[in-house]
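[User]
Protein folding is very new to me. Any chance you could explain this protein sequence and its structure tokens? I have pasted everything here:
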Amino acid sequence: MLNISKEDKLVVKTISSIKEKPIKCMFAGRDTIIITTDFGFNQLNLNGQVKQSLSFPESEGKVVGIDILGNYLVVWTQASYIRVFTISNDIKQVGQPRRFEDSKGLIGHIKNCSINANGKKIGIVSNKASTSGSSVSHSFHVYDTENDSFVGY
């Protein structure tokens, strides 16, 4: 953790260190950092101490991304699972993990997600290889967490 002073501009002072090797990290408020691990994520304070740790089953794949807006956090995995959480002093999961699939199977492999401010909609950018494997199609979907449905655009 570094403190970069506006006044000194070139002075960088280490204020703490994190022993984790995060894949992704984001601030969640003034004094909290979320860092992803292979199969979950940790909530740390600015001193690098773990406040809370959440783990997911390996069957959901490794965590590949996180997005935070306001008090909501979305996490997605290599196996195209989505998990939504609320952030306050502690982190609580909202609903159940959801795979990016419909009645026909996997819709695509999630490349990026973005959650809205009330945690009810998640924008999903994905791609899917053709059955022959010769081309890849890209798509955009919105996941409605209240209705548990995906809408493609």
The chain is about 0% helix and 60% strand. The mean pLDDT is 87. Residues 68 and 74 are 7 Å apart (CA to CA).
